[in-house]
C-alpha cells in the first residue's frame, strides 16, 4: 500500500502541481536544484530525470525521450502497484473466510 501511495503522490506532483510549476514538478527536485545553485552549479538540465540519465551515462540524452520513458515507467509502476494491492486484498479476504 505504501508503494501505491508514493506512486500516486508522484503522479499528483507531476501532473497536478505540474499545471502551475511545469510538467514533472517535484518538490524534492526543486529543493535539490536550490541547494545545487547555492553550491555554484548553474548549468543544470530541465528535469531531474534527465540530470540523472546524463550524469550516470555520460550521454546528452534527448529531453523528449527521457520524458517519454519517465511517464512510461510511472504508468507501469502505477499498474503494477494497483495489481499487487488488489491481489493482496483478495488473498486477505479469502483467508478470513
List its traits.
mainly alpha, 4 helices, elongated, 97 residues
In oligomeric terms, what are we looking at?
A: single chain
Whole-number radius of gyration?
17 Å
Number of strands: 0
Mean pLDDT value: 92
Distance between the termini: 22 Å
Number of domains: 1
Q: Can you give the helix content as a percent range?
A: over 70%
**Helix/strand order, N-terminal first:** HHHH
Count of helical segments? 4
Give the CA-based shape.
elongated
Structural class: mainly alpha
Poorly predicted regions are: none
The fraction of residues assigned to DSSP E strands is under 5%
A few lines on this structure:
It is built from 4 helices and no strands.
What does this protein look like?
- This protein has 97 residues and is mostly helical.
- It has one domain.
- Helices cover 78% and strands 0% of the residues.
- It has helices at 2-21, 27-38, 48-57, 63-96.
- Helix 1 packs antiparallel against helix 4 (63-96).
- The radius of gyration is 17 Å and the shape is elongated.
- The two termini are 22 Å apart.
Amino acid at each position: 500500500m505504501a508503494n501505491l501511495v508514493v506512486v500516486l503522490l508522484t503522479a499528483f506532483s507531476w501532473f497536478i502541481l505540474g499545471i502551475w510549476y511545469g510538467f514533472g514538478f517535484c518538490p524534492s527536485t526543486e529543493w535539490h536544484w536550490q541547494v545545487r545553485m547555492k553550491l555554484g552549479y548553474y548549468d543544470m538540465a530541465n528535469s531531474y530525470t534527465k540530470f540523472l540519465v546524463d550524469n550516470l551515462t555520460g550521454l546528452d540524452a534527448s529531453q523528449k525521450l527521457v520524458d517519454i520513458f519517465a511517464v512510461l515507467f510511472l504508468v507501469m509502476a502505477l499498474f503494477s502497484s494497483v495489481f499487487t494491492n488488489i491481489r493482496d486484498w483478495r488473498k486477505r479476504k479469502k483467508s478470513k473466510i
